[in-house]
Structure formats: structure tokens, C-alpha cells
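Suppose you are handed a protein chain with no further information: no name, no annotation, nothing but its sequence. What can you learn? This example shows the usual starting point.
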Amino acid sequence: MASDGGYNSVDLTWSSCSRQELLTFFSDGEAECVKDLPALGGSLQDWKPGLYYGVDDQCRIAFGSTARACSFTNPDLPACRVLSCHINPDDNSSCKRLLVPLLDGTECAPNQWCLKGRCVSLDELSSSVVVHGSWSNWSEFSPCSRTCGGGVTHRTRKCNNPRPAFGGNDCEGSDIEAGLCHQQACELTQLDFMAEQCSQTDHHPLYLLPNTATFYTWIPAIGFAQGDEQCRYMCQSKGENFIVSRGSQFVDGTRCETDSPPHFGSTLLNALFVSDQLFGCDGVLHSGKVRDVCGVCGGDASSCSLTADSYTSGQAREYTPFLSLPVNATQVYIVNRAPLFTHMAVMVGDRYIVSGTEYHLHLTPDLLPEMEELLLPGPLSEEIHVQVRREKHSF
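A reasonable first move is to predict its three-dimensional structure. Written in C-alpha cells, the prediction is:
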């Protein structure tokens, strides 16, 4: 059973010095000021400190920076009469009690607040005491979440200056403001950042059976979620059919992109995570903008035209150019339906390249090549030539 620390968990006795000073104050006739009733002028915010300092704040003031409000209650103790706090950040089983009432304006239950040691509801208050929420100052911007490849920096504010109370309105606007940073390309890693994070958990076992550790190779679980749900740290076991959470969320600044070739006329999502929220492709939080098939952020696909064709020729055992792609070409999708006898290659100038392309090879149940797919999202910064090599004279 959890311990509550008891009523005597804090020494509230007077020191001899303080006792003498108080007695002198009264005996010298200087205590007439305590007979005056306080003037409650101004707004409610001026005399309800609990609207500015919640229970966690009051615990930190009383017991130190690591203290926080107790996660359980004692039915024998009125909610607003005793300050109950967890002192040790690693211990949720015990509470320390301070025999002081919670500050007036402290929320003590849903739509209830402490007033003079009582937990009162909105029905017990007049409409004149309504308090509308107001924002705190912005925090400092956080460090950039990545050193390269496009990260995120953000700052936050809280609706606690004061907190809304007694039927008042919540703060309007967003509690987070973010921007992009360190957008230069990474030089050392060849892995997509999302894939990199999933692969970093390969050495963390799953215990599918009691006391039996099982290890898997983890890859991003692409295409199983939309919107903010893409921020969840979900990875798929390579070669298996199950998806598992490998943490709370992907690192702020993780780029989410579809991993499958798009259908012509579809859009390619290009966004960044920040604290379970998404940037649009324009770098603005919550803008909802995505790139169209032409690669234009927020475009309507009217700035480019669709070109489609097929190729069935080529020389045996030689690389034959069959497609030249101009600068600014986007969403190039090539399918080879006879990969048992042919395969594709991509050239820039006089060199073959792999980076900047997405390549997929689909196998039959007998592990034979069934279909080859090549995707160049673009827009291309230089002219590219695609070649095909035939191993035999006929497909």
C-alpha cells in the first residue's frame, strides 16, 4: 500500500526567534493592520494565485525542483486542505503531505477549483468570477533536432498566465512555434533518417515468448498511417508481417515520404515531424501543403505534363539507352516486367548512379525476379539516361 507520509511529515513548529518576533509585533501595538479587510479590487486574476501556480508548481516551491503532485488521492483528506507531493522523481508510491491549503484558484477536479480550502464547482460561483486563459511567454528555441538533412527547432508556451477557470475560455492560437534548420544534405549517411532510427533498434529484442529474446531487422512501416499518426515510432520487421512500436515518436525533423511509386496524378507527401505535428512542404507548421506531381509545393499539377510510353527493343548483352530525362523532370516511374532476362541502369554523364533513385525488385514465390521498378522523384538537377541490358535475344 502506498504511504502518504502522515500529517506530521513536515515540521511546522515555530523557531524561538520567530516566536519572539511575532509576540513583540502584537505586544507593541503594531498589529492593528490585521483588523482591516483586504480590498479585492481589480480582476480575479489579481487575487487567485492558483490560476498561475498549479499543484505541480506549488509542490516544487515547497519541496524542490523535482517534486510534483501526487498521482493518487487520500479520501480522508479534503482535496484543497493539504498539499500532497511526490518528492523522489523515481518513486510514485509515496506522498509527502504539507498541512497548508492549496492556493485559491487551483484546479481540484474537472471544472472545480479551490477557494478558501474548499473544492467548489461552477454552480457555486457567480458569473462575475469568470477567468479567461492567457498565454505565458515563449520559451527559448530548442537546439536543432538534426545536424544535417533538415531538422526542426521549436519553442513552446503555456496557457497558464493565468489558467482558464470558472467557465472561462481557453487560450486561442497554437502552443508551439517551429522552424526548419540545418537543411544542408548529409554527407556520411546513406540511410533515410526514418530507416536509420528503425535500424538503431535492431539490437533491442522482442520477447514474444516468456524469457525468449527474438531479434529482427527493422524498417520503416510506410503507408500504414496518415497525418500526425506518421509521427509514431512504428517499424516493420523486415521479411515479416507485423509492425511494432519501437519508441514514443520519431525524432523531430524526421521526413515522412511515401515509399511506394506514386500513381500518375497523385501527390508525394513531403513533410517533417515536430512533437506529433507536421510541417508542410513549405516549411510552415500545419500548413497542410504537399508537393504535386510536378514537384511544386502546394501546386495543382498544371505546371507539367504527363508523358508515358513503352520500350521493347535493345541489344543482347549490351546496355542500350532507351530514355533520356531532361532537367526538372519529376515523378519518373519505370517498370520492367521481364527482369529475368533484362535489367535497368541509370547514367549521369559517363557514370552509373544509384543515389537519388528508388529501386525495387519483386520476386516470385520461387525467388525469381518478377518485376523491376525504378522511381526518380525529381525534380532532376541534371540530364539522366536510362539503359536496359538484355541477356537473351527474346523476352
